[in-house]
Amino acid sequence: MKKLSLAFFSVAIIAFSITAQTKIKDGTVPGGSLIPNADAILELESSNKGLLLPRVELDSTGLPSPLSSHVQGMTVYNTKKTADVLPGIYYNDGNSWKSLITTKVIVDTVVILNVGESFVYYKKDVPLTAAKPLLRDHFSDVPVLEGLRLEASYYADQNFYIPRWYNVSGTTKKYTYTCISGATVNYDEANQTLLNGQFENVDGDNIVYASATAAETVTVDLIINEKWYRVLWYVFKDRSVNATNNSLTVRISITRLH
Which end of the chain is more exposed for a tag (fewer CB within 10 A), N or C? Predict the structure, then answer.
């Protein structure tokens, strides 16, 4: 009988622990209540200590890793800057990671267009260098189209630049495109596969004129996710005001055709 009573008592304690609310305090708040908030399963109370979340390295908002799958409500502190994630607190909505960062950070401009609509990205006096070779290194609003971030990259000869796109979608991208260049060879690629984090130069010979005396346009027809876009890079050195200016003026236009 004693053994039965002891077993019953142990089960009751376990059941109580599972369903109980908890308040953890360190005594630094004078007069603090011992009773947890009625709506909280767990309440923490301290005047000089915080909650330390698990610190992980996310790969992108679209990938669950380092978790095995997306779990709604999961909250972590990301320590890595890569793809479309930055260091900070992220929660999971069951399909992707969402940032809790509210201060100004580098966040790309996701371009979503209906058929016939256009978007123009414009930056003046862009100082692309070997140390900071990409638009993303200087600006917080670089356009992303269907998971591809549209870039103008530094080239060693500063009379040129490199038009390219980066896959920042978190998944592998498949697409077909043709390139028409204003001064050099044309180019086409069918059924291309681009892994997450990789880039592709989209001009025939990779480099495009962007000097004070020669400006070259690059026009790309892109088929991706069963949508047809026309993307145009127009980059040059504007010396209309400053005769010695070596910085670039960048225009990237996007039009959805179908």
Answer: N
Structural contact between residues 167 and 196, judged by C-beta atoms closer than 8 angstroms: yes
Report how far residue 53's alpha carbon sits from residue 43's, in angstroms, rounded to the nearest whole number. Answer: 15
CA dist., res. 221 & res. 199, Å (int): 17
Query: Does 66 sit behind a cis peptide bond, omega within 30 degrees of 0 on the bond before it?
Result: yes
- Asked whether residue 237 is assigned to any structural domain, the reply reads yes
79-107 confidence digits (pLDDT tens): 987 767 788 999 999 998 998 865 434 45
Paired sense of beta strands 75-78 and 227-236, if any: unpaired
Are 128 and 248 part of one and the same domain?
yes
Neighbours of 100 (CB within 10 A): 10
Instruction: Confirm whether pTM is higher than 0.90.
Output: no
pLDDT top residue among 210 and 66? 66
My answer on whether 133 and 251 are in the same domain is: yes
pLDDT digits (tens, 9 = 90+) for 5-35: 444 444 444 434 456 789 898 889 888 788 8
Angle at the Cα of 145 (from 139 to 149), degrees rounded to 5?
40
CA distances from 109 to 74, 134, 243 (A): 26, 15, 32
In a domain, 5, yes or no: no
The conformational region for residue 27 under phi > 0 = left, psi -120 to 50 = alpha, else beta, is: left
Range of the domain at 74: 52-105
